[in-house]
Write a structure and sequence with these properties.
about 280 residues; alpha/beta; 8-stranded mixed beta sheet; 8 strands
């Protein structure tokens, strides 16, 4: 397959999966949609991968060049050679990926802790980020809902399916069956990757709450929360209203992972937001 850095664009008929060789480890990239369309970068959450966006991509790729990456240690990306899962470092690596792909600016969408990596990218490379959309991304640690799910034992890794389903159940509205693909993704990760990525997100929030970071950035912001989120208090979505111009949407009947639970409703919110800011970014350049 032609390396993305030599042939960065794809056309609507030819989705592309490839691997970028970075100094700290290989990063898996998926691209869909017209190569000359505005870029939407989709960043997954902890213990997941770019595949968590599979249901969303067909709804977005007719109008956008959709880029998905597997963060280090997730999906088909290598664990970082230096063991550094810190969120600011994630932002730097994503910036390197976009440079390799020839991306000048993008609307960046993060689900759950992927919103922290998206914010870190905007902090590190503000010129690359036209706008930010955060889906089910907790604003501060006191908004986290303590979990009663099983704690994994590193001596018994990888865990059995029922243990993974217990852990992942609160990532969805009550009664929603945890997809087998998600179970398989988590089982394929190392214990170090799962725990280090989660600890990095906690450290990033404890250092500075997300609304404070976003206010300082001054980027257009869309926030989407489900009113049945069982990971973060749904009312905490209102914390983002301190960010000037922020658009905050609370979705009735949606849990923590509406990108799987109700992808059409998420796409209906993302598309007009991305369209407006893609136009503004192109005019600015």
């Amino acid at each position: 397959m032609t390396p993305p850095e030599r042939h960065p664009h794809v056309n609507a008929a030819a989705p592309e999966d490839s691997v970028l060789r970075l100094e700290q480890g290989d990063i898996h990239v998926s691209q869909d949609g017209p190569g000359d369309a505005p870029v939407l970068l989709l960043i997954h959450g902890s213990a997941a991968s770019g595949r968590s966006w599979d249901a969303m991509v067909p709804l977005l790729a007719t109008l956008h060049r959709v880029i998905r990456i597997d963060l280090p240690g997730h999906g088909r990306s290598a664990e970082p050679a230096d063991g550094d899962y810190a969120t600011p470092e994630q932002g730097r690596r994503i910036g390197t990926v976009l440079d390799r792909l020839g991306v000048g600016h993008a609307t960046v969408v993060g689900h759950s802790s992927g919103g922290y990596a998206a914010t870190a990218l905007a902090e590190h490379r503000p010129g690359l980020v036209a706008a930010l959309a955060l889906i089910s991304t907790g604003p501060r640690m006191d908004a986290f809902i303590p979990q009663g799910a099983a704690v994994f034992d590193p001596a018994q890794w990888p865990p059995a399916d029922d243990r993974i389903r217990e852990f992942a159940s609160t990532a969805f509205r009550a009664g929603y069956r945890v997809p087998q693909e998600l179970v398989d993704e988590l089982r394929g990760m190392t214990y170090r990757a799962v725990t280090a990525a989660m600890q990095a997100s906690i450290a990033y929030l404890n250092q500075r709450p997300l609304p404070d970071r976003l206010t300082a950035l001054g980027k257009p912001l869309q926030v989407i929360f489900g009113d049945e989120d069982r990971r973060w208090r749904p009312a905490s979505a209102a914390d983002y209203r301190v960010v000037p111009g922020a658009e905050v949407e609370l979705l009735p009947g949606a849990g923590h992972t509406p990108i799987l639970e109700d992808p059409a409703r998420i796409a209906a919110l993302l598309l007009p937001f991305a369209a407006v800011h893609a136009v503004r970014a192109s005019r600015a350049t």
